[in-house]
Amino acid sequence: MKKSELKMMIREIVREEVAMTIKEVVKEIKQPTITTKKVKPKKKIVEKKHYTKNSILNEVMNETAAGEEWKTMGSNVQTTNDMANVMAKSYGDLMNNNATVDVQQMAAEANVNPETVPDHVEEALTRDYSELVKAMGTPGGIEKK
Questions:
Q1: Residue-wise over 6-43: b if at least 16 C-beta within 10 A, else e?
Q2: Are residues 48 and 15 both part of a single domain?
Q3: Own/partner pairs, 41-49, CB within 8 angstroms, 24+ separation
Q4: Are residues 50 and 25 in the same domain?
Q5: 60-68: which pairs have CB atoms within 8 A and are 24 or more residues apart?
Q6: CA-to-CA distance for 8 and 25, rounded, in angstroms?
Q7: Is 76 helix (H, G, I), strand (E, B) or coil?
Q8: Tens digit of pLDDT for each residue in 62-117?
Q9: At 12, phi and psi to the nearest 5?
Q10: Residue 72 in 3-state DSSP?
Q11: Is the pTM above the cut of 0.90?
Q12: Which of 25, 38, 101, 129 has its CA 20 to 30 A from that of 137?
């Protein structure tokens, strides 16, 4: 094979490759790929309300009211009727008296010598507060037995 023939073959192959690539580029230009830009939702204008005398607290509460993310917990809108379910998921063990308090472990985690925990602190941590919690939910307070 002569040098000139080799050059011609190379030119022909390059032309074919360039032609195929140009067709792909033209296709992409005509049908642009979908870009994944995050579209910021438009903030709706909410009239600021006066909740309290504290200006900072008012500002925070107005920002919360204007936002949308607080309206859902998980995948759906929560109402006060759903509070029992939310509490049961988060604090179910405590509500069913399945939780046990290990004062020694708590002290160790708090970098306190378990031997130095006073008795009154240990009693406060292990006390059954269920009657107190029930009384807080009862309009008349603690009922005498």
A1: eeeeeeeeeeeeeeeeeeeeeeeeeeeeeeeeeeeeee
A2: no
A3: 41/68
A4: no
A5: 68/41
A6: 26
A7: strand
A8: 888 777 776 676 667 777 777 777 777 667 666 555 556 688 888 888 888 888 88
A9: -65, -45
A10: strand
A11: no
A12: 101
